[in-house]
Write a structure and sequence with these properties.
Number of helices of chain B: 8
Helix content of chain A: 25-40%
Strand content of chain A: 15-25%
Shape of chain B: globular
Largest sheet of chain A: 11 strands, mixed
Number of strands of chain B: 8
Mean pLDDT of chain B: 92
Oligomer: heterodimer
Radius of gyration of chain A: 20 Å
Order of helices and strands of chain A: EEHEEHHEHHEHEHEEHEHEHHEEEE
Low-confidence stretches of chain B: none
Largest sheet of chain B: 8 strands, mixed
Radius of gyration of chain B: 18 Å
Shape of chain A: globular
Chain lengths: 383, 253
């Protein structure tokens, strides 16, 4: 396979605030569903409440088994849709990204030991990221190699980018790529402490005031062989911006650079891009930087959307979860609307689409940015 | 089979016995960096120290890719955040929380070295460095980057008894913290050691290099960089993987 060849999306599975399953989530997205629930963080001296995009299931939010159930269900959906042979499943390498991995299991175990008054209560009993990989491999019965990416909100976008490159290089023929971000106290409390949480997600809106967190699990089987969808990854680029540990340069320079690098890899001109899925976190500084970066590369931008108003900011999982929602919508010929955007911000000069529109065949740009100044842009092709 | 020139290498490895404290990194850091690091954790300091010691042995190119790997990641900050949250019932301190993410270390490494290319954090228990090398090799072969800075960093937290429990390692093993780095470029060169990577589904070969080093989760990186610094055998070889995935043969000579 040549370095510039497309890598196909052969199977997808998703669980997010829109529901469980690609069909359910796509229908909810097209219906414009936005549903958050109130959440109170347990166990803190000062009560902390927030709105949260939770996966609509029946299990308690912080139940340990819930993590395994959601991982298993989503993975099975993607692998079944990919229609791989038993031998291909057994050899599947796993590329996954998250910002929390299985930290919820560590929290639960440590808290239980503290409650029991154990003098040997151990913080972080499940160290590293391998527990998550092993849970997925056990579920599928696969024994391929694992690559865990922990680059904050670009983690699973980077997993997608690298998995596609490994397929192009001939290192593997198929790969399972996952984004995982499930409710845990560390993330919820951490973002509260950073004072980045808002009540409503309003990407690029004049009144935007911050993010609303969400949970999601997404799984994609990438393949050198075409699937039924006609969707494929064309290219992907990533860079690092040392402006700040929590944001890219608001002048948009590094964001423009990463988008340009993705276009260059694909041999595309900016005018060939049919639409842009922005990162669109709705935090004041991030949207400023992203708008500036888009306008540097696209003086007359194609339609822009932001998907976080549907599923919340799923952090390390958003690379995969948002690509799945975008791909599924494009497959149905829909370029999604951006709920929450109502008032244009004159300082940004960028307005995401308020109404859904028809999606033409061609190339779509997907942006992801994370803490550490980590920027990633992917190119998704609709046949 | 892919061949790469190892144009620079460095190794920091420090074994810690029961009852000992961790050494200060300040003097070594001051020797390689003018930055004064605030609100960072030991994982970040180890990452900056090791990468800077390696980078000063060569010239990093503008498109140099950064591949930072770790088997267990920034343990110290994660422990602090969990103590604040679960034991003390307060919100985590913002910088403690941000430092729990692998990309925080990558950010400080890139900032210190003045590089702004691809910046990845890759993990695999017991094989993080191998995973990062595999990715870096594919990127070099595809021309995504022309040079790769590949590192493995493992933090050790005290009390060491708790660290042993987290790693499930017995008292017979001396534990260490470490920061091990190489800079590789595509193609072989007589001037530098040549690293070859290949995947074969063949029988295992016995490793040729087994010095007794204190242990951390990226032991392969410790072995490789130790050999590159000492060259006390003609060849370094590593064979690792699974029957299903295929064995990765890594050799440097």
């Amino acid at each position: 396979m040549r370095a510039t060849e497309r890598v196909h999306l052969r199977g997808m599975g998703i669980s997010c605030a829109l529901g469980q399953g690609v069909g359910v989530c796509t229908a909810a997205l097209e219906a414009g569903t936005v549903s958050t629930t109130p959440l109170t963080l347990p166990g803190l001296n000062e009560p902390v409440t927030m709105r949260y995009y939770r996966i609509p299931d029946a299990e308690p939010l912080f139940a340990t088994e819930r993590f395994d159930h959601l991982l298993a269900k989503t993975t099975r959906e993607a692998v079944a849709a990919a229609d791989l042979s038993r031998d291909e499943i057994e050899r599947l390498p796993l590329f996954f990204g998250s910002s929390c991995f299985s930290v919820e299991k560590s929290e639960t175990k440590y808290q239980a030991e503290l409650r029991e008054g154990s003098r040997a209560a151990l913080t972080l009993p499940f160290v590293g990221f391998q527990h998550t990989a092993d849970a997925i491999r056990d579920e599928l019965g696969c024994a391929g190699e694992t690559f865990a990416f922990n680059t904050a909100c670009t983690a699973s976008a980077n997993a997608l980018m690298i998995a596609a490159r490994m397929i192009r290089s001939g290192w593997c023929r198929h790969a399972l790529v996952m984004g995982i971000e499930l409710a845990n106290q560390t993330t919820l409390a951490g973002f509260t402490g950073l004072q980045l949480i808002a009540e409503t997600l309003r990407p690029f809106d004049r009144r935007r005031s911050g993010i609303v967190l969400g949970e999601g699990v997404g799984a994609i089987v990438l393949s050198a062989d075409p699937g039924a969808s006609g969707l494929s990854l064309t290219a992907g680029a990533s860079n690092g911006d040392s402006y700040s540990v929590t944001a890219a340069n608001p002048d948009g320079s590094s964001i423009a650079a990463v988008q340009s690098a993705a276009l260059r890899q694909a041999g595309l001109d900016a005018r060939e891009i049919r639409g842009i899925k922005s990162h669109g976190t709705a935090s004041p500084m991030n949207d400023t930087g992203e708008a500036a970066g888009i306008l540097r590369v696209f003086p007359k931008p194609p339609p822009v959307c932001a998907l976080k108003p549907y599923l919340g900011h799923t952090l390390g999982a958003c690379g995969v979860t948002e690509l799945i929602l975008m791909a599924a919508a494009l497959e149905r010929g829909v370029f999604p609307a951006t709920p929450g955007f109502e008032e244009r911000d004159p300082s940004l000069d960028l307005s995401p689409a308020r109404e859904a529109s028809e999606a033409a065949a061609g190339e779509y740009l997907l942006n992801y940015f994370g803490f550490g100044g980590n920027n990633t842009s992917l190119l998704l092709h609709k046949a | 089979m892919s061949s790469f020139a190892v144009v620079a290498a460095s190794s920091y490895l420090h074994g810690v016995a029961e009852g000992e404290v961790l050494p200060s990194l300040e003097a070594r850091l001051n020797a390689v960096s003018r930055e004064r690091f605030r609100r960072v954790d030991r994982f970040i300091l180890l990452s900056v120290l090791g990468s800077a010691e390696c980078a000063r042995k060569t010239t990093l190119r503008e498109d140099c890719g950064l591949y930072l790997s770790s088997g267990i990641g920034p343990v110290g900050s994660n422990v602090q955040v969990q103590e604040q949250l679960c034991r003390d019932h307060v919100l985590p301190k913002p910088f403690n929380f941000v430092n729990t993410l692998g990309s925080a270390a990558g950010h400080h490494v890139a900032k210190n070295l003045g590089i702004n290319g691809q910046n990845l954090f890759i993990s695999r228990r017991g094989g993080a460095f191998r995973a990062a090398l595999t990715v870096a090799a594919a990127d070099l072969e595809a021309g995504i980057v022309s040079q790769a800075l590949v590192g493995a960093v493992e933090e050790l937290t005290l009390p060491i008894e708790e660290h042993r429990r987290r790693l499930a390692v017995g008292l017979d093993v001396k534990l260490a913290e470490g920061s091990h780095w190489i800079v590789i470029e595509r193609g072989a060169s007589k001037e530098f050691p040549t690293l070859t990577l290949s995947r074969r589904e063949s029988t295992l070969e016995v490793p040729t290099y087994q010095p007794q080093l204190p242990f951390h989760d990226s032991y392969e990186a410790a072995l490789l960089t130790h050999w590159l610094e000492h060259r006390d055998t003609p060849r370094f070889q590593l064979v690792a993987g699974t029957d299903v995935a295929g064995w990765l043969h890594l050799a440097v000579e």
